[in-house]
Specification:
Length: about 220
């Protein structure tokens, strides 16, 4: 009977001490806390924008070394600069906040972009789709890829630019993903050039400015 009493007494004491110590946790106090393991609470460090003797110029905040290359440059789209991490049509091919594909190229279509697009198309796409995009690439002659889409098909002509971006990025059917090979800006350059290729095959004399039409009309 005595022993049970002792045990209860010990338990009560432990509980009282426990509550006494742990119960104060989280209270505000002006006194420094009891520190059993100081971990790395206090260490030498530079405070931002404060004077400091460590560097020769006496500043703690140093400028980047000369000729440092920025890790990220924004793309100049028709709606202003866009960084690679932004949820914007130029990065996704989709209208922001929806799953709809954007209709038109977010990059300003210039002669330079078309040149770049031609070069990249001939490197990455013409082997299968052919230099005209009509599906008669070398892969067809070799018989290694039986059914390559003709990019001159009405269906492809009518696709939104964003959907073509999606196909280039992730691939489709037998076509592999080209996202890892072709950077974002080059994908849009290829799309701009592809549109020019389609126009070259599907355009008519009536698409020319009126004063130039006469030269081509019989
Ligand atoms: C290895 C061969 C190969 C290469 C390289 C290739 N494609 Fe394709 N592409 C295909 C095949 C095959 C299809 C048909 C896919 C299907 O419908 O199953 C296709 C389909 C497409 C389509 C139609 C997608 C649709 O909605 O039906 C587009 C647009 C396209 N490719 C664009 C490109 C562009 C642009 C490039 C260059 C960046 C490219 N492809 C490179 C083989 C290729």
């Amino acid at each position: 009977m005595r022993q049970v009493l002792y045990i209860i007494l010990i338990l009560l004491t432990v509980a009282a001490v426990g509550v006494g110590i742990a119960g104060r946790r989280g209270r505000l106090s002006r006194k420094p806390p009891i520190e059993v393991f100081p971990d790395m609470d206090r260490q030498l460090r530079l405070r931002p924008a404060q004077p400091n003797g460590f560097f020769p110029n006496g500043l703690s905040s140093q400028l980047p070394p000369r000729e440092t290359v920025a890790r990220s440059e924004p793309l100049q789209t028709v709606n202003g600069p866009v960084y690679a991490f932004e949820d914007a049509p130029v990065n996704t091919g989709r209208v922001t906040g929806t799953t709809n594909f954007v209709e038109t190229n977010p990059l300003p279509v210039t002669g330079q972009l078309l040149q770049r697009g031609r070069e990249r198309f001939n490197i990455y796409c013409s082997s299968c789709h052919g230099a005209l995009g009509d599906g008669n690439g070398i892969s067809k002659k070799l018989g290694v890829m039986p059914a390559v889409a003709s990019l001159q098909d009405k269906r492809i002509v009518e696709l939104a630019d964003g959907e073509i971006f999606h196909t280039i990025t992730l691939g489709k059917g037998l076509m592999g993903a080209h996202g890892p090979l072709v950077p974002v800006a080059d994908r849009w350059a290829i799309i701009a050039y592809l549109r020019a290729l389609q126009l070259s095959q599907l355009g008519s004399v009536d698409d020319l400015p009126p004063d130039q039409q006469a030269a081509f009309k019989k």
